[in-house]
């Protein structure tokens, strides 16, 4: 979620400067083990042992849990592993579900009805937040690579949105400039299955299929051999995640909680409601062939143009595909018709990008 050159400077800063700025950014004390920022040694070691079992397991288990059970028969003396795997998968699903429950409890209390604003101050000292943090500690023990694709996407969307809120709730002052934001997304992390995942790792590494972030000169978050690659959605990642991730700013899509059982439906709804919001997609008044779009479409253009055609026309075609042709909403219908007309007219189509409002989404 970044804009332009200043980031190049940020990346070139020596690490002591980064560390200093980060301390300045508001974290007073080191958070408890396993929650936000760095893992503690003990966790990491315990996690690593569990991980090696799980990694071995996930080789048997690339597609879904069913494959592991099938292999169990073939392997005979390896039978112990798939059994453990099945147990670990169930345990992971259980933690994911209870995390979702605690997240919903927080959202019901401290999120505006449409998900666009969070009451961070009230959240910070609430019972709901405390309960959530207790469950969030259990993330150390989950093995998300054992979840199927849908479950994994829902899980990481929920963890990302909750981690943003967690990080913003415990900061004395929210990030207020580019560098602080950069650090926030890079440094806020949970230990998940024994390994640290920052917000950037979750977004670019897992949900975008290990693509470089939009910051100039950034590389793939997970290098070859990184065990977190096992959790990455590398096969045709779903670009609609961009309408489901809330980065804590005014211009972000609303905060929602996701569930594997209806993920596709929820993402469809999130996409349509994002692109039919005037703040994110609008035609210019004079119909000169300009379409104004949220900067999200600029930063993640490659995600929205999967066929290597990154033209404005291709981008708009994708946006059109997010609006249900049968929609009963007259505004959505009209927007879709106008965009279709524009794209099919042969007229010169040009996208322009709206400034992103980085003000905190606080209530
Ligand atoms: C993934 O798991 C969910 C339930 O957690 C299930 O509804 C869905 O059918 C599974 N998907 C696949 C492809 O196995
Ligand atoms: C897209 O481009 C990449 C690299 O430029 C290439 O490897 C890939 O085959 C292309 N895919 C399509 C569908 O053209
Ligand atoms: C961004 O949102 C805040 C809060 O709603 C508002 O006060 C401010 O004017 C907005 N900034 C811009 C540039 O639109």
Automatic annotation (TrEMBL):
It comes from the Eukaryota. It holds the Pfam family DUF547. InterPro entries: DUF547. Keywords: Signal. Residues 145-275 form the DUF547 domain. The keyword Signal applies. Coiled coil: none annotated. Residues 1-19 form the signal peptide. PANTHER family: ELECTRON CARRIER/ PROTEIN DISULFIDE OXIDOREDUCTASE, ELECTRON CARRIER_ PROTEIN DISULFIDE OXIDOREDUCTASE. This is DUF547 domain-containing protein.
């Amino acid at each position: 979620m970044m804009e332009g050159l200043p980031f190049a400077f940020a990346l070139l800063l020596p690490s002591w400067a980064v560390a200093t700025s980060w301390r300045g950014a508001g974290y007073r004390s080191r958070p408890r083990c396993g929650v936000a920022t760095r893992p503690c040694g003990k966790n990491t070691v315990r996690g690593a042992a569990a991980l090696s079992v799980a990694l071995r397991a996930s080789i048997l288990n690339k597609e879904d849990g069913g494959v592991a059970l099938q292999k169990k028969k073939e392997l005979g003396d390896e039978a112990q592993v798939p059994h453990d795997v099945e147990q670990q998968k169930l345990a992971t699903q259980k933690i994911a579900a209870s995390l979702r429950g605690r997240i919903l409890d927080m959202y019901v209390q401290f999120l505006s009805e449409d998900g666009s604003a969070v009451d961070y101050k009230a959240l910070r000292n609430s019972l709901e937040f405390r309960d959530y943090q207790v469950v969030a500690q259990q993330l150390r023990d989950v093995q998300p690579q054992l979840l199927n694709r849908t479950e994994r996407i829902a899980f990481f969307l929920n963890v990302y949105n909750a981690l943003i809120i967690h990080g913003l709730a415990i900061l004395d002052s929210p990030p207020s400039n580019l560098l602080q934001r950069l650090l926030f997304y890079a440094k806020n992390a949970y230990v998940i299955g024994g390994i640290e995942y920052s917000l950037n790792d979750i977004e670019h590494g897992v949900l975008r299929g290990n693509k470089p972030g939009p910051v100039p000169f950034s590389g793939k978050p997970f290098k070859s051999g990184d065990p977190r690659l096992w959790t990455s959605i590398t096969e045709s990642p779903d670009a609609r995640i961009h309408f489901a991730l809330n980065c804590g700013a005014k211009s972000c899509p609303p905060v929602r909680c996701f569930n594997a059982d209806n993920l596709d439906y929820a993402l469809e709804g999130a996409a349509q409601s994002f692109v039919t919001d005037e703040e994110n997609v609008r035609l210019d008044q004079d119909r000169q062939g300009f379409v104004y779009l949220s900067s999200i479409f600029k930063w993640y253009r490659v995600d929205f143009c999967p066929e290597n055609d990154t033209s404005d026309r291709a981008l708009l075609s994708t946006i059109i595909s997010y609006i249900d042709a049968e929609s009963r909403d007259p505004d959505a219908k009209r927007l879709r018709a106008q965009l279709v007309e524009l794209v099919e007219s042969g007229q010169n189509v040009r996208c322009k990008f709206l400034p992103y409002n980085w003000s905190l989404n606080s209530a």
